[in-house]
Amino acid sequence: MDKKEAAQRLVDMFGDMNVIGVVHSILVESSKYIIILLFAIYTWHCFSVFIGKNPEKKEKIYKRQNKIMYTIHFICSLVLFLNSLDVKMILFYLAQLIFLVFVNKAYIYVYRNASKIVLNNMLMLLMIGFVMIGRLKQDNMVKQLVFALGICIAGLFIPFLIERFAYFDRFGKVYVLAGIVMLALVFVIGKSVYGARNWIIIGSFAMQPSEFVKIIYVFFVAAMLAESTEFLDVVKVAGLAGIHILILVLEKDLGAALIFYITFLAILYVASQKAVYLGLGLGAGALAAVVAYQLFTHVQTRVIAWKDPWGTIDTAGYQIAQSLFAIGTGGWFGMGLGEGLPSNIPVAESDFIFSAISEELGAFFAICLILVEVSCFVMFVNIALKMKRRFYKLTALGLAIEYIFQVFLTIGGVTRFIPSTGVTLPLVSYGGSSVISTIILFCIIQGMYVLNCREEEKLESRPKKQKAER
Amino acid sequence: MMESDIDHSDLKKERKGNIQILMLTYGMVLLFMGLIGCFTYFMAVQSQKIINNPYNKRQEVLAKKVQRGKILSADGKVLAKTVTDDEGNDIRIYPYDKVFCHVVGRIQNSMTGIEKTQCYPLLTSHSNPLKQLTNTFRGEKNKGDTVVTTLDTGLQKTAYNALGNYRGAVIALEPSTGKILTMVSKPSYDPNSVKKNWKRLIQDSEEESALVNRATQGVYPPGSTFKLMTAMEYMMENPEDYQDFHYQCKGSDSFSGNVINCYEKEKHGRVSLKSALAKSCNGAFSKIGTMLSVDSFRDLTEKFFFNRSLGVDFEYNKSRFSLTEDSDMGELTQTFIGQGKTMITPLENALIAATVANQGVMMEPYVVDYLENDANKTVTAHQPKEKGRIIEEWVAEKMTKLMKAVVTDGTAASLRSLPYSVAGKTGSAEFDSEGTSHAWFVGFAPAENPEIAVSIVVEGVGTGSQYAVPIARKLFDEYLRD
After folding, report:
1. Is the pTM of this model over 0.80?
2. Looking at the structure, do residues A170 and A249 belong to the same domain, yes or no?
3. Rg, Å, chain B Cα set
């Protein structure tokens, strides 16, 4: 049922009261401006929280952010309901609401001292994802919700795990082995999806191993480099990381290969404190990119699509062109939720969800979304800076880079800033593996931070030091 | 740095690597600033142009909120408008029926013309935001922007009627700006009933190709109109002594065994460059051709946008020039008199005339003058753009003189009696072995201060003098009447 029919039905239901029709259109039309305004305030608070040190004031900001999230969620759900008059929408809304409230309360309890901005952002991004996926493909939204709930419950135990296994950094070799085996498994029982052989499908259960290896990969690099950054050790680690990356390249999973590479360089740079490694690494990466372009046709296709999507609109450029049409037609304020045509973009609910969001909720909203993602990263870095144990510091930094670089690849790809590499927007895009691994990533950083604070309290070596900011 | 490892201060150990972390953070933030900057630039500058693409299927979504705007002629007449019928359906109406069908285009059965190129501007409303808001809340559609064209209704009707039942095309430009004043293609069809008649139009049992805009998409052999190019090239290669050129025409000549005849084997006698062009002497121009550098001539044609994209905002075909140094003498001599493999659109031929008229500077042809909102406030206006200096000023001036001689002493003599002077060139382009030909005329007027350049082709009727020149006369009369 489209909006007009829905409005007509409301009028019919309430008799000949045109008021209803008018109220309906006012609600639906004004909602997009209200959503943008609220989200802008939310985004502002993600950064304004760094100003001043008053803990009470900060607490207030966190509360306000929560309220804004619930309000945006309510408005979006109301619009989706009014446009369809489908009772299922109310059920979806309630299920999502219960999820958000539950995770919020439980995490505040379990992750005491953890960054609340990070928690708020995690929920906000998940919520935007639910709304958008629900608007595009309802079945996928239900799956996403189930996955998110499952992993959020599991995530409640992560702080305990980290505390129990304080010697996490001794398993470098195990991480390497596990990572390489999992990645290589794809060659044995893998399946190609959209040109990349990076899926394992067992029965009706499909997963992307690279999403999980991403995390133990950071453990491995951080553990080994925390131990030593002697030249020979660096070469060894580089070789092992190289095997990971090579497998990913062979699977044609370019996005993941890039993320793995940049993450390795970042950890190496921080661990060794030598800019030479970063410079050499970026240079070698550029060289490798040129070689890859010469060798692989699928790399060439992506670059051609990026350089000239209009000339190749029937083939390689189709996706990116459709993405730009969606973003451009949506304009600054968007077409309104449910009013656009995001289903015209291939894989709109996963890799191209940013374009769908920009089309319907507007470019202003989309820019705020980018800023919220950046704010997550800044908070991660803030945590990494405060970490005392080297392994934790390097892990937090590695995960932070992994996260933000993936955001950069996906948004840069769909807006034609860089060639598209086909990675998901963490927490927002549909995808079980992606949402699970990102929530684990958030939990680990937060969990390590909690532990760091606790160790600090125990030691009480420097009693004058300010209590860690929440 | 290694020394600091020995230092066991906790604080120092804790902070080890923090500088590097901050550097990485700055780097990432910089990347994102670039990303947001690029995104903002896309939204503010590029998006309007980019979304206007037939592959973007959002017209119907926009059409639910915005009533498609009007298309107007330069003199304010409505060429296309949308009205809402009693049942609330939007209907597109074209008040001039067939007259503007190709240039204005249609929205049903695949969009064409201005309807296609301006699809998104027509479906975008720039009316007062307050008005838009009240409209939205009332559930009423906003009014889309109006596209004001450069087309002149009087001239268009004249051209349409002058072509009569012949097949062919007429295009007229303002040389100093590139404004397209008229664009007619025949046979035509009625865009109001295109859906109803679609099957017949597509089957095309009469082979009329009524859906094709011949003015910009039809490619024809240029015939003698191409001698303008040959003459220009000769002058440029011999700037000192081109006036000394002479040729003894015996009605027929042979170049390495390739026989070239003049029209009806007429003997033109001793001709100079000027009289050879005026009388359209094939022998003289073949002779000139044998003296020219093919590469240099090829460069000239490509400067005039043969084989190249014009980058204009309407559908067109490229004109083709394919002569090379390796081509044989037969093709060479044929090409320089406008036969051979050269193919030209009426648009391209109009551009050649307009460039000469504009002292050698080609203006980019355009048909959309500006966009205005429902309160007649201009939203965006098209500024005339130079395509570049194609030929030197002295060549253009000299060419104008030669083309005037075509009217005063040559094949377009019926334009001699007009109250203003005309410069032009006729052509009769043979396209099959039976000797039937397309009638051509290109030219401009007044020759001293050109206001209009025209290009006319009438398919398969005979000579340019007989069939195309009278149409030019009607156009000049209509446009320069007062």
Report:
1. no
2. yes
3. 29
